[in-house]
Design brief:
5-stranded parallel beta sheet; globular; 488 residues; binds magnesium ion; binds adenosine-5'-triphosphate; Rossmann fold; Beta-Lactamase; alpha/beta
Amino acid sequence: MTRLSLLVDLVSMLAREVDLDAWLEDAAGRLAEALGAERATLWLVDAEADDLVARVAVLPEVRDLRQPFGRGIAGLVAAGGQVLRIDDAASDPRFDPSADRRTGFTTRTVIAAPIREHDGAPLRGVVQVLNRAAGPFDAEDERYLVALGRELGRALALTTLAPAADEAPGVVLQGPFNLIVGRGPAMDAVYERVTLAAQADATVLLRGETGTGKTLLARAIHVNSPRAAGPFVTVDATTLPTALVESELFGHERGAFTGADRRVRGRVELAQGGTLFLDEVGDLPPEIQGKLLRFLQERAFERVGGRETLRADVRIVTATHHDLEQAVDEGRFRADLYYRLRVLEIDVPRLADRGPDEIERLARHFAERYARRYGRPSHRFEPDALHYLRSHTFPGNVRELEHWVESAVVLAPDGVLTLSRLPSARTTRRAPPPASDAVSIPHGLSRDEAGERYVRATVEQLGGNQSEAARRLGVSRNTVARVVRTRS
Ligand SMILES: Nc1ncnc2c1ncn2[C@@H]1O[C@H](COP(=O)(O)OP(=O)(O)OP(=O)(O)O)[C@@H](O)[C@H]1O
Ligand SMILES: [Mg+2]
């Protein structure tokens, strides 16, 4: 099952806000390990540059590795769309030694397969593995790599490495973090800080207007931090009555108040080993601010009605759309807490300040996403609709744009997004976040459990066809049958 669980791990990571460069590197490293090989590379077809790229080179300091179509093994697979296996690179005319000359690596054996949803589908990339320790690659390796390439192709369609449209070749590099779209200077500054925040364990304060992506970025910080395997727990101070905020955060003992008929652990305890995200921290009631400050200073707290002092190893990320300085001046927010929270401050720009190209990029991203969700055909924006979006100042920021585009997609069974199908320029109200449409395997499952769920989900998706599921996942029919039989 290790080859299968590798696939599950890789695909389920793509449902999160992972750093895509780190994901590509990690995926390649683990793939090499699974195949007993020295090295692996995931190449993506860059739709804009018309070549293969091994890194999501959006940030200027990230050096990208590129390969033209038709040159070298990966280039040949990209051009021909067929899997290639090479048993002796030195004597094979298809092998291009120039990369080895640059890196000092000596390639002996190679296997490379296309990344795409199915035979004949547009190519998204190439997965390539070099130098298996125990002799050349065999037919089983080949089948596995082809299956992996298909699963990766399907998974990528749900990420921000998605193509511009279903039928278009390649992928469009939309930003360094999965599911987060934007690659202009305004967002690059944010990404830089998110990367730093992910590496350091310091308290983070995300600031920005409503709908700018604070929650999304908070998750990105967690997912790319050493705490990624731990829980990500959210508390939103605005959704709870003041009396409940303290017990929600720190828990309560049995009998602490009327109705407290059992001990309940607070969010702080539930976040042990992970990240606690305090949303709308500016709205935290004054009574709780002191307790939060103590927790930030000592990582110590008591449950409501409890005497025992407890400790939790938790990283705190907070967000607010309020002007905290003003709240401090007016005495509504403790100054000492304010300084504790802003160890690492990230200002998330308004959508209007990111420029029209970013608006268009996000609009296309949401159109693609919702067309998929509602089973609509690939979208096309009419020029006047696009012009209107590009020049509108969205007071509700990205969330408002997302709602506009979702609504236009629903109103357009033909896929043509016209001006008349866009909602009028009114401020939209808050709505619950949309459910994810990614292949969803809950986190925190054991590898075997996750693997089995993945098999069952695939069988279900294929209407019960176990042979097809086995082919798609690159495992034996017996494995699939066994997993389906053991369904509890
Ligand atoms: N850069 C982005 N790329 C893709 N989607 C985005 C981006 N920014 C925001 N969104 C989407 O817009 C919506 C609002 O984002 P989010 O909830 O993170 O905003 P927020 O700043 O936390 O808002 P609030 O202050 O109201 O809590 C979400 O559906 C989110 O997925
Ligand atoms: Mg939010």
